[in-house]
Amino acid sequence: MSGPVVVAVAASPRHGFHKQPLPRIDLMAGFGVIGDAHAGVNVQHRSRVARDRMQPNLRQLHLIHAELFDELARAGFAVRPAELGENVTTRGLDLLALPRGTRLRLGPAVEIELTGLRNPCVQIDGFQPGLTRAVLDRDAAGNLVRKAGVMAIVLTDGPVHPGDTIAVTLPDFPHTPLLPV
């Protein structure tokens, strides 16, 4: 493989755990995936709406690296793109290692900015028992590592398709690690 690539895209008009794999999603700057329940200027995730529905939506787009699915398969879980609720599944890019503020160009037009980590919720165990623990880990210092993907905001409108290339632009130093949003 020559570089990072989009392997799947998905959306769902309803709040739920899974999304529907699609041949294309359309992104709108400052809004998210057109037709997705989590799109909006203000937060759309139900738990966050209950706390403060006017907070900005830093979770307009959810990305997961396909390498996580490979790791989960080795642990006995069967997970396919869109089944953990992500909009974009990538391959060839260590999403979790990127700093906050990293910009990704998806295909020829779309630009997004990483805002933080997805904090896995108990719904994951409702999908497959034990899966929540499988998407959490500890680093050498004992710190919790969340592996269930990253969240982003949309900076530039456009379509995203499976097979689109991904270009990475890191923010200026000092880099700030991704934290749950």
TrEMBL record:
The lineage of its organism: Bacteria, Pseudomonadati, Pseudomonadota, Alphaproteobacteria, Rhodospirillales. Gene3D superfamilies: PK beta-barrel domain-like (2.40.33.20). Residues 20-169 form the MOSC domain. It comes from Zavarzinia aquatilis. Pfam families: MOSC. This is MOSC domain-containing protein. GO terms for molecular function: catalytic activity; molybdenum ion binding; pyridoxal phosphate binding. PANTHER family: METAL-SULFUR CLUSTER BIOSYNTHESIS PROTEINS YUAD-RELATED (PTHR36930), MOSC DOMAIN-CONTAINING PROTEIN (PTHR36930:SF1).
